Description:
Elements: E1 2-5, E2 10-18, H1 19-34, H2 49-80, E3 84-92, E4 100-109, E5 122-127, H3 132-145, E6 148-151, E7 161-170, E8 173-186, H4 194-200, E9 208-214, E10 228-242, H5 248-253, H6 261-295, H7 302-322, H8 335-357, H9 364-375, H10 381-389, H11 392-414, E11 416-421, H12 424-431
Parallel strand pairs: 5-11
Antiparallel strand pairs: 1-2, 2-4, 3-4, 6-10, 7-8, 7-10, 9-10
Helix pairs in contact: 1-2, 3-6, 6-11, 6-12, 7-8, 9-10, 9-11
Amino acid sequence: xxxxxxxxxxxxxxxxxxxxxxxxxxxxxxxxxxxxxxxxxxxxxxxxxxxxxxxxxxxxxxxxxxxxxxxxxxxxxxxxxxxxxxxxxxxxxxxxxxxxxxxxxxxxxxxxxxxxxxxxxxxxxxxxxxxxxxxxxxxxxxxxxxxxxxxxxxxxxxxxxxxxxxxxxxxxxxxxxxxxxxxxxxxxxxxxxxxxxxxxxxxxxxxxxxxxxxxxxxxxxxxxxxxxxxxxxxxxxxxxxxxxxxxxxxxxxxxxxxxxxxxxxxxxxxxxxxxxxxxxxxxxxxxxxxxxxxxxxxxxxxxxxxxxxxxxxxxxxxxxxxxxxxxxxxxxxxxxxxxxxxxxxxxxxxxxxxxxxxxxxxxxxxxxxxxxxxxxxxxxxxxxxxxxxxxxxxxxxxxxxxxxxxxxxxxxxxxxxxxxxxxxxxxxxxxx
Length: 432
């Protein structure tokens, strides 16, 4: 057995399996098959061995050889204490020793990870607090979300909901997507081109109106970009917005059972504080992970990158399916996922090394604290906590989050970390 190093991570093992061992394994398997083999003209288990060999011999020989080769490879890897990344590639070797099946096993090993020095890295850590104004804005958003519309006996204006028919014509001919019947449109929300909405403003219910409109040069449809079209519009209804009053009925409508506005504001503040913590954690995590990538140079096993590309592709296809797009008319190329896959693989290797070398393992109390924090967003948090602890896989997912938190804390403790006072409103816009 010989090991050859072809590049920094690729290895090649020269291995051999005695053909007598292969033959012996094949005979054992064929005898096992013969006990239950079915063939026309013979009772089950009474098929002559010669026919069993003819029917199954080729596949059995291939399976036995493959398993023995894999076993030989596993023994060699264990003996040399190699950490294999991905599956090996077996290739038969011509002109080997008599009575032996000689082959090569080519594979990659995990790189030696030496985490770089983060002490010179600057990381800004936002510090924010939830103010009464933040709560007021959230209350106002909730009210706006529950806006209802009532008929208005006047011309349409911004903020109104209108119901209209429209027909668009390019060079006198209808164009795709240019027609609708009974369409509802809230003016001023940017649902349509501003020039279109401007033509609807000022119209009253029952109005018929025709106008020309020129699409922007960068319009998403190349067939319409920069083109001038005509629209014929019939306005059926104009409705004005009615925002609910801030009272006990409104509080109950958003889930506050006692209808107390004080309770509503208190619950909103807690939710905003949770959201703020999560956003700050996410931003600092991104910066800490980027710092680790910037200071750590390491080769990546291509087998792991390929596996990650496969996972990312599958995730995207599942997302398409969830959106009702059952099939794609084109293949998703590896290049689409390569950069993200390399980043994930690199971070996985770096985090694994830090957790091992710096003993950043997740403690039970940390796991419970994360679960209880997540459960706090639900109406019955104790049931959510039980749900997590009932399934080991769910706990493993939380453990992974805690490990990341521990690594981020380790990086921030060694980097030039600066706390920066940040208004929550700015924090929210940065996160988006």
